[in-house]
Amino acid sequence: MSLDFIYIIKAIVIAVVEGLTEFVPVSSTGHMILVGSLIGFRSGAVGAEEFAKMFEVVIQLGAILAVVVLYWNKLWKAVVEFFTYIFTLGKKGHSGFKFGINVIIGSIPALIVGVTLYDKIKGLFKPSAVVVGFIVGGILLIIIENIYRNKASKRRSYQTMDVFDLTPIQALKVGLFQILAMWPGMSRSASTIMGGWIAGLSTPVAAEFSFFLAIPAMVGSSIMDLSNFDFSIMNSTYVVALIVGFIVAFIVALIVMDMFVSYLKKKPMRIFAIYRIIAGIVLLALSVAGIVTLTI
């Protein structure tokens, strides 16, 4: 079967969108749904709608691989210390064990909600829901960041400045906020960073913990999604698109993550919130004008 190069180019576009948006607070899923609808990635070929859903899941794993590569030393240290703590009955490796437990605690709320409401959550993956998520998430980002910065300016010692210093309660608070990310357009990054602010983490630490929570969240979500995928629709075009998309998402995410953390050390996140609100309003206006169709 000959390859559909136009479709593969569309897949690359979606992969670039994923890499650019997965770890910044603008919603990668929301952008992929919107861009995919605009360029016809979800239609025009047999099984395109089904494949698009699976493609978005797989390239997100490419972005998650970027977390593992960028933070390899820190993650490897944590894994080694986690098992050292277990095998030495708590005599060594306390820091890594504590970090691992916090990641587990932070992942539990999303796991429970994701498994319980899986079908209903997937039913929300539509452009109309994305627009709502963009606007509501942007407003929340501005409000919570203002509260956070006011507290931080009055009492800097209240911030946790190292991801290994989190308490289980802080991890749970971040995990509860991660539930918001199940609404497409809300953004997992934005939701967990807001949770980090509420929990008393500095912005860079909130972002780092957000990255680490993404690993179990996205791997778990991917396993559930792939288990429901109809692999009989796969063809040579889809296979190539999947491989190329994974690689592109990984490379772009690796570059963006490093730049994003550097940005957070100097600048507020308000610019992302403003972008989300404007994008949501523009899309809503285009829909009302009949230029863009937002499926309900």
TrEMBL record:
This is Undecaprenyl-diphosphatase. The chain crosses the membrane at residues 6-39, 51-72, 99-118, 130-148, 197-218, 238-261, 273-294. The gene is uppP. Its main location: membrane. The lineage of its organism: Bacteria, Bacillati, Bacillota, Clostridia, Eubacteriales. It comes from the Bacteria. It is a multi-pass membrane protein. It comes from Clostridium sartagoforme AAU1. Belongs to the UppP family. Catalyzes the dephosphorylation of undecaprenyl diphosphate (UPP). Confers resistance to bacitracin. It catalyses: di-trans,octa-cis-undecaprenyl diphosphate + H2O = di-trans,octa-cis-undecaprenyl phosphate + phosphate + H(+). One of its GO terms (biological process) is cell wall organization. PANTHER family: UNDECAPRENYL-DIPHOSPHATASE.
